Amino acid sequence: MTDAELPFEAAAFAARAHRHQTRKDNATPYASHVFRVCLVARHVFGFDCPKVLAAALLHDTIEDTSTDADDLIERFGPDVARWVGALTKDMRLPHDAREAAYADVLRAAEWQVKALKLADLYDNLGDSRHLSPGGRERTAAKARFYLDAIAVGLPENVRAAFALVEARLTELNASAK
Known about the structure:
Radius of gyration: 15 Å
Number of helices: 10
């Protein structure tokens, strides 16, 4: 498979992997989230690397489906698998330890991982308007926690994306009041 084909294969793979899942509203197919994260990475943030777009589409497959890293290495290569792995929380850990470990990974992550997490946050913040005020507050607090981790050593090519997510977080915080 060529690099140019990666996002197309990743879109089909993600749609199959998430086929029985819905978003928090229990109505929207979960795959719409990963498709939007890819669209944010490409059209809002301007990242056009096919591997980054494939990882955007696959970013929740290890954490939320029966997919494992070996599946991704075999189908999409080591870079995509590594980035998706970095975006995967260790669900075997208790909540607080899991979140702390995840923040540590985000702090030390490659720029691609930081950009992808920003695209994920951008979509999640935009998709939280239907939540209760308390739900919006929890989403905002979690986003702030991740943004603080991502900000450490933030590369120049990701700063504009970071600013867009910060602006979206500010909007959500204003609507939660």
